[in-house]
Amino acid sequence: MLIFKKRQISDEKYEACAVFDVNGDGIPDIVSGAYWYEGPDYSKKHFICDILAIHEYHDDFSDYPLDVDGDGRLDIITGGWWGETLRWRRNPGAANTAWETFDIDKCGSIETIRFFDIDNCGVPEIFPNTPGAPQAFYKLIRDADGKGTGEFLKVVIGDEASGHGMGFVDMTGNGRTDVVLCSGWLEQPEDPFQGPWTFHPEFQLGSASVPILGHDVNGDGLMDLIVGQAHDYGLHWLEQGWAADGSRTWTKHDIDLSGSQFHDLWLVDLDGDGELELITGKRYRAHNDGDPGAHDPIGIYYYKIDGGRFEKHVIDYGAAGEASGAGIYFWVQDLTGNGYPDIVAPGKDGLYLFENLGYGVE
């Protein structure tokens, strides 16, 4: 079993984070909410800007790095539920200068945001999960030199409200990545900007995680789905198959029913064996104690997939204040250079770093 060294970076209660080089010194830094923490030791804290706080939340459910204005510095893409607005924050390049925030679009309440290069241009597009609005994505407009202009093109790909949950999966095996929602999936056309994106209402995933993951779990050549319940108990995988009449089928299998609020999931090779592990955990107080299992212990886990057997390993587990949850958007990246990906976990319980020591000893 892998060994992780846990360290609290901050007691700030933001629920999203990211890792990127903020100040251009070649060393990755940690960004979470209103602050960034300077690498390599993350003990020096820098102010970004004030963030709206409401009902024990902060209106900041993404801190993704993207050079929006083409100045060579990575900015932040963000948005939240109450502001109902997709935004970007401009990196000023000076450590003691507040970051200016710009609106991209008043798109509706944002559950969280994910990013995927849907047109293979080399720059990811922005996909906010807006449960009450049709699914859309935003493309950064770049100039002739390939630099960001600060402007975005909005492309609406759905007709109905998208619901809670979203992921990027090549469902058909045709080489084009489709968009999975909680009640079906949107099939990418040959030109993702022209459409139409055909909706296939093939399942009901409940309060699905963001992301919903695509992975051939049982090795049969068909893409399966891995989904957590973001506001209920349960972590599952859906096996893709075919009925006698040629229709696609989905068979639900349990992974872990012992926990609730599995809001964010990652597939990463944590131990260097060439196989992907599933990493997830509880989003602590996702609905401010209003979800099933809200008062249960919190934790972070990884699962060896093993053809669908999903062997669970505990990274952290215990009562709130002793153990950490995973937040709405945690981050996985090798910060120490030892070849093993580390985990940065934000949340209402604070910001934590889990240093992956591999199979060695502390």
UniProtKB/TrEMBL annotation:
<protein>
    <submittedName>
        <fullName>FG-GAP repeat domain-containing protein</fullName>
    </submittedName>
</protein>
<keyword id="KW-0732">Signal</keyword>
<dbReference type="Pfam" id="PF13517">
    <property type="entry name" value="FG-GAP_3"/>
</dbReference>
<dbReference type="InterPro" id="IPR013517">
    <property type="entry name" value="FG-GAP"/>
</dbReference>
<dbReference type="InterPro" id="IPR028994">
    <property type="entry name" value="Integrin_alpha_N"/>
</dbReference>
